[in-house]
Amino acid sequence: MIIIVIDANPIISSLIGGISREIIFSPLYKFITTQYTIEEVEKYLSYIGKKSGVNLEEIKEAFELLPIEIYNKNFYEAKMKEAQLIIGNIDRKDIDILALVLETHYPLWTEDKDFGNIPRINVIKTKDLV
After folding, report:
1. Is the pLDDT of residue 88 over 90?
2. For 6, which of 31, 40, 59, 75 could close a Cys bridge (C-beta 3.0–4.6 Å)?
3. How many CB atoms lie within 10 A of CB 112?
4. Taking the C-alpha atoms of 28, 34, 39 and 40 in order, what is their torsion angle to the nearest 10 degrees?
5. Alpha helices of the chain — where are they, by DSSP H?
6. CB of 32 within 8 A of CB of 100?
7. What percent of the chain has pLDDT over 90?
8. Phi, psi at residue 27, to the nearest 5°?
9. Is 107 strand, coil or helix?
10. At a CB cut-off of 8 Å and minimum separation 6, what does 104 contact?
11. Which residue has the higher pLDDT, 23 or 119?
12. DSSP assignment, residue 26?
């Protein structure tokens, strides 16, 4: 089983439907993310409901069923300063997820272009997992 850090955009895509959902539920992978990322996705649940035509309660239930292990900041705190230096000036919302990647050395599944030029991390796009 391959462990992959998952960013907010594939999580949101999986809730809307399509290939991202199939990937998340694949037995080939185990996905982990930050509590911060989960909180960011929660802000979009009503938007996801509107976009997918599914009521908010069903979206919340689907969100809770996603097989994603959530890490709190204590786990990757030692890498926060380094992550801040690398990506803080580009997008502060990406600091936590980058710190988790730096701490674990696992690849990051994201469609966010901000991670494209960061040495020492392996970025995976959805098309790479299909």
Report:
1. no
2. 31
3. 18
4. -80
5. 8-16, 19-24, 35-42, 45-52, 56-65, 73-76, 80-87, 95-104, 126-129
6. yes
7. 81
8. -70, -5
9. coil
10. 3, 5, 32, 76
11. 23
12. -
Average pLDDT value for the chain: 94
CB 56 within 8 A of CB 46: yes
Query: Rg of the chain's alpha carbons, rounded to an integer?
Result: 14
Handedness of CA 94, 95, 100, 102 (dihedral sign): positive
User: What's the confidence (pLDDT) of residue 108?
Assistant: 98
Per-residue tokens: 54:
């599914």
Q: How many CB atoms lie within 10 A of CB 55?
A: 12
How many other C-beta atoms are found inside a 10 Å radius of the C-beta of residue 42?
A: 12
Q: How far apart, in whole angstroms, are the C-alpha atoms of residue 115 and residue 48?
A: 24
> Nearest 5 degrees, angle CA 98-CA 104-CA 110?
45
What is the distance between the alpha carbons of residues 98 and 108, in angstroms, rounded to a whole number? 8
Backbone angles phi, psi at 54, to 5 degrees: -110, 140
Say how far apart CA 53 and CA 121 lie, in whole Å. 36
